[in-house]
């Protein structure tokens, strides 16, 4: 019998909100710490503690009401939580697992230390951050473009800049002010890949099918399932996931983003120690969603079935393209009319450009004969969704 019945979640955005169905199926109560009563997960939590994500005193209260605490995002104050863990409060993943991952520079160093392939990188701090050109290590490619990333709190392309020349690099460094940043080589990839992997309390690991993610302005627009890659690449990505999760001794679910280069080389781009946008397809396309897999993992249950229920699928993010207060009922209705299309609306009341308002997943079965390849069919379905969503 599973003795964990109450899971505390730090963060109340749509990732926590999407845990609701899985929690219900597993007979688990979710208690959520989030700043505002209007945050998506407040609507589904059995109890909500209204406080900032990094408020450790609020987390101490959350701990009193929970059997285990997990995370919806990385905007936590690790140092402030450490005393709680030493008092016996159970965090999954443990805080030591998160420690090397929250800062993008520390994450790069950790991945390199455990032998995983990463782009060349260098930290920019001290005098360099105030706008002087950083002195780069000799092995760092000084050819432009280069990628500049804020080391903490960047997501959905925020805090990430692809810079074409020295002048724009210096201007961006100046604009970033005192913010510590990471500078890395630009990888001219042939595909961006991602894999969702979970590790149980007993050390069992499952990986979902490797997917291709397609970004625009560093924000994920669509996910093609499975990725069109050969078996050797698939095995390499799975091996990376196993190495990472075992090295960390992690409990929970992780999103791993990767680059596939034109010569077939894999480089790890970023690790998210939580459920991830690249895994949203699992809600409708897999036997066990990433949200159920995560809850199973952190509550000590056996992991679920990661297999697809269909032959292929495409997930398209519905991103805000204007400033408005609208639930886009008419567009959502049109999307729902596409065969095998599942629309998930996040219930946000305010739209702004780039904000994730919902997503759709369309399932594909090969019994529907077509002269197009699977990838062409998935791309075509994505275009159909985007013409409805972004069309006038």
UniProtKB/TrEMBL annotation:
<dbReference type="InterPro" id="IPR054350">
    <property type="entry name" value="PurT/PurK_preATP-grasp"/>
</dbReference>
<feature type="binding site">
    <location>
        <begin position="184"/>
        <end position="187"/>
    </location>
    <ligand>
        <name>ATP</name>
    </ligand>
</feature>
<keyword id="KW-0658">Purine biosynthesis</keyword>
<dbReference type="InterPro" id="IPR040686">
    <property type="entry name" value="PurK_C"/>
</dbReference>
<dbReference type="InterPro" id="IPR003135">
    <property type="entry name" value="ATP-grasp_carboxylate-amine"/>
</dbReference>
<dbReference type="InterPro" id="IPR013815">
    <property type="entry name" value="ATP_grasp_subdomain_1"/>
</dbReference>
<dbReference type="Pfam" id="PF02222">
    <property type="entry name" value="ATP-grasp"/>
</dbReference>
<feature type="binding site">
    <location>
        <begin position="269"/>
        <end position="270"/>
    </location>
    <ligand>
        <name>ATP</name>
    </ligand>
</feature>
<dbReference type="InterPro" id="IPR005875">
    <property type="entry name" value="PurK"/>
</dbReference>
<feature type="binding site">
    <location>
        <position position="104"/>
    </location>
    <ligand>
        <name>ATP</name>
    </ligand>
</feature>
<dbReference type="Pfam" id="PF17769">
    <property type="entry name" value="PurK_C"/>
</dbReference>
<protein>
    <recommendedName>
        <fullName>N5-carboxyaminoimidazole ribonucleotide synthase</fullName>
        <ecNumber>6.3.4.18</ecNumber>
    </recommendedName>
</protein>
<comment type="function">
    <text>Catalyzes the ATP-dependent conversion of 5-aminoimidazole ribonucleotide (AIR) and HCO(3)- to N5-carboxyaminoimidazole ribonucleotide (N5-CAIR).</text>
</comment>
<dbReference type="InterPro" id="IPR011054">
    <property type="entry name" value="Rudment_hybrid_motif"/>
</dbReference>
<comment type="function">
    <text>Catalyzes the ATP-dependent conversion of 5-aminoimidazole ribonucleotide (AIR) and HCO(3)(-) to N5-carboxyaminoimidazole ribonucleotide (N5-CAIR).</text>
</comment>
<dbReference type="GO" id="GO:0034028">
    <property type="term" value="F:5-(carboxyamino)imidazole ribonucleotide synthase activity"/>
</dbReference>
<dbReference type="InterPro" id="IPR011761">
    <property type="entry name" value="ATP-grasp"/>
</dbReference>
<keyword id="KW-0067">ATP-binding</keyword>
<comment type="subunit">
    <text>Homodimer.</text>
</comment>
<feature type="binding site">
    <location>
        <position position="192"/>
    </location>
    <ligand>
        <name>ATP</name>
    </ligand>
</feature>
<comment type="pathway">
    <text>Purine metabolism; IMP biosynthesis via de novo pathway; 5-amino-1-(5-phospho-D-ribosyl)imidazole-4-carboxylate from 5-amino-1-(5-phospho-D-ribosyl)imidazole (N5-CAIR route): step 1/2.</text>
</comment>
<dbReference type="Pfam" id="PF22660">
    <property type="entry name" value="RS_preATP-grasp-like"/>
</dbReference>
<keyword id="KW-0547">Nucleotide-binding</keyword>
<keyword id="KW-0436">Ligase</keyword>
<dbReference type="InterPro" id="IPR016185">
    <property type="entry name" value="PreATP-grasp_dom_sf"/>
</dbReference>
<feature type="domain" description="ATP-grasp">
    <location>
        <begin position="108"/>
        <end position="299"/>
    </location>
</feature>
<comment type="similarity">
    <text>Belongs to the PurK/PurT family.</text>
</comment>
<feature type="binding site">
    <location>
        <position position="149"/>
    </location>
    <ligand>
        <name>ATP</name>
    </ligand>
</feature>
């Amino acid at each position: 019998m599973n003795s964990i019945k109450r899971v505390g979640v730090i963060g109340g955005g749509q990732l926590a909100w999407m845990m609701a169905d899985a929690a219900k199926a597993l007979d688990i109560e979710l208690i959520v710490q989030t700043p505002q009563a209007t945050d998506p997960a407040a609507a589904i939590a059995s109890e909500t503690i209204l406080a900032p994500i990094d408020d450790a005193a609020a987390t101490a209260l959350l701990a009193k009401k929970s059997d285990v605490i997990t995370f919806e995002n990385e905007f936590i104050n690790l140092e402030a939580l450490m005393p709680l863990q030493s008092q016996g409060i159970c965090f999954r993943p443990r805080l030591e697992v998160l420690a090397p991952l929250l800062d993008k520079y520390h994450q790069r160093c950790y991945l390199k230390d455990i032998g995983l392939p990463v782009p060349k990188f260098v930290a920019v701090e001290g005098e360099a951050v105030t706008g002087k050109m950083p002195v780069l290590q000799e092995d760092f490619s000084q050819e432009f473009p280069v990628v500049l990333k804020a080391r903490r709190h960047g997501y959905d392309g925020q805090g990430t800049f692809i810079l074409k020349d020295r002048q724009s690099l210096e201007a961006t460094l100046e604009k970033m002010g005192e913010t510590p940043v990471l500078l890395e080589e630009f990888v001219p990839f042939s595909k961006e890949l991602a894999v969702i992997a979970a590790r149980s309390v007993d050390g069992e690991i499952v990986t979902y099918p490797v997917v291709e993610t397609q970004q625009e302005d560093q924000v994920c627009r669509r996910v093609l399932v499975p990725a069109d890659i050969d078996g050797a690449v698939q095995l390499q990505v799975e091996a990376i996931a196993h190495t990472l999760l075992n090295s960390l001794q992690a409990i929970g679910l992780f999103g791993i983003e990767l680059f596939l280069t034109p010569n077939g080389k894999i480089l790890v781009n970023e690790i998210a120690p939580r459920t991830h946008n690249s895994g949203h397809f699992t809600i409708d396309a897999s036997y066990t969603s990433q949200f159920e897999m995560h809850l199973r993992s952190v509550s000590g249950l056996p992991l679920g079935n990661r297999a697809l229920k269909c032959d292929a699928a495409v997930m398209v993010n519905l991103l805000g393209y204007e400033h408005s207060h609208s639930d886009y009922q008419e567009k959502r209705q049109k999307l729902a009319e596409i065969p095998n299309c599942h629309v998930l609306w996040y219930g946000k009341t305010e739209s702004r450009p780039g904000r994730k308002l919902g997503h759709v997943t369309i399932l594909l079965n090969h019994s529907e004969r077509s002269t197009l390849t699977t990838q062409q069919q998935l791309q075509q379905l994505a275009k159909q969704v985007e013409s409805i969503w972004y069309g006038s």
